[in-house]
Amino acid sequence: MPLCLPMIRHLKAPELFGPIDRLPVLGTRVSKRTFEVLNPSTGEVLAELPDMGDEETRAAIDKAYVAQPGWAGLTARERSDVLWRWHQLIIDHADDLAAILTAEMGKPLAEAKSEVSHAAAYLQWYAEEANRIYGETISAPSTDRRMMVIKQPLGVVGTITPWNFPASMVARKISPALAAGCTIVLKPAEQTPLVAGAMFALAHQAGFPEGVVNLIYASEGDAVGRELCANPKVRKISFTGSTEVGRLLMRQCSDQIKKVSLELGGNAPFIVFDDADIDAAVEGAIQAKFRNAGQTCVSANRLYVQSSVHDEFVEKFVEKVRRLWVGDGFAPGVDIGPLIDKHALAKIESHTADAVEKGGTIRCGGNRIGKDGTFFEPTVLTEISSVMAVAQEETFGPLAPIIRFDDADQVVREANDTIYGLAAYFFASNLKRVWRVAEALEYGMVGINTGRMSSEAAPFGGIKQSGIGREGSRHGLEDYLEMKYLCMGGI
């Protein structure tokens, strides 16, 4: 009897799912092992999926390798049309996809719907960008030759996506690759594979040829990652996750000089200067800190507030944080859902306890909620010092440590004093200060007087040990193209 994805509660269109071993987007199944997907709000089992490994990954790579020349051989318009159809199917099934996402990841349904819309936006953007892959002509040094540059797809791309944005990250990673003419083998996070499965089922309906998009389910990424890195048919790896795993994948790819795109850890500073609009800064901090329960790579991890406005900011911020409602993502009006698992819960409890032990003050929150699920109160800490774990490590949860500062130059130095360089935020009104701080912060993305800055039209990515490459924008397409110089003589 074939494994089937079960009907998840609140779904309106369970026909999205069929028997797993009949979906053409899956590699050949060899292992008989399975793993469970859990609802983090309740701990209930949502699905039992095949636990695939290196053999299934190798079979999926072989399918992608065979399919790639045909996919690349289509016109840009033909590839664009398939991406457009996929985009429309995502829009048509947005409510169902959001329900799956909330069930397996926990985020509030309103946030899940926003994420699905964001995923669709990436498909739309790269459906359009597929038609804008341009070469160039070069002035030749003699009259008997012509020189030009063309751009061609890399080939097969292995992608590994995280659990915190399981729909938008799938679209953001693979849509530029598909637009460029590459084929895909995707391994979604083991905590949140169901929405990826639904999106790939819709991709099949959209008309992608056999072998162009391939999905691998696995409870652990080691075997899949090793095969993707070692297999010479894979020309590039795109990974979003921890810096530790990113380093490992980079080492594994080094023997083949394989291209990599890495979107890794962050330790984002959020700075409030004394000339800021404090109310706007509070709203921005709520967005940057508590979206997705603080489980975003660009989440504000260290909040620096200048001394002259510190007390006002803290008072207004704490008041807003106290009003945030924590609960099951399907409950109406919920602002913050559960943490993804018990490990995440243990980490935020550890960071809170460490801060208090070293002199920090809990201004609100600080406790786990209930015995079931992985809920934690949105928490604000003050009197934070550099010796505390919250000032050094990425918490990845609804914990906001506030650090008082006096000198503007010093706070920039402290903000830059990290191996990470993904995202930073600051609020200020003086134009001279805005330009100087924006240019001085050592981060790939800087939000100025805003707590949200992600867009399919903008390049997303970091510097230092936060990663390599960019996703989104026209630059994201370039990462999946090879540049080829042509020189024709005898003209």
TrEMBL record:
Task: Cite a single GO MF annotation.
Answer: glutarate-semialdehyde dehydrogenase (NADP+) activity
Query: Might you give the EC number(s) for this enzyme?
Result: 1.2.1.16, 1.2.1.20, 1.2.1.79
Chain ranges of the Aldehyde dehydrogenase domain: 32-485
Q: Does the keyword Oxidoreductase apply?
A: yes
Gene3D superfamilies to which the protein is assigned, alphabetical:
Aldehyde Dehydrogenase, Chain A, domain 1, Aldehyde Dehydrogenase, Chain A, domain 2
Task: Identify the enzyme class.
Answer: oxidoreductase
Gene Ontology biological-process entries: gamma-aminobutyric acid catabolic process
Q: Which Pfam families match?
A: Aldedh
Family as reported in the entry's similarity comment = Belongs to the aldehyde dehydrogenase family.
Kindly state which keywords UniProt assigns to this record, in alphabetical order: Oxidoreductase
Q: Where is the active site?
A: 263
Cross-referenced InterPro entries? Ald_DH/histidinol_DH, Ald_DH_C, Ald_DH_CS_GLU, Ald_DH_N, Aldehyde_DH_dom, Aldehyde_DH_Superfamily, Succ_semiAld_DH
The protein's name is: Succinate-semialdehyde dehydrogenase/glutarate-semialdehyde dehydrogenase
Source domain of life is Bacteria
Q: Which SUPFAM superfamilies match?
A: ALDH-like
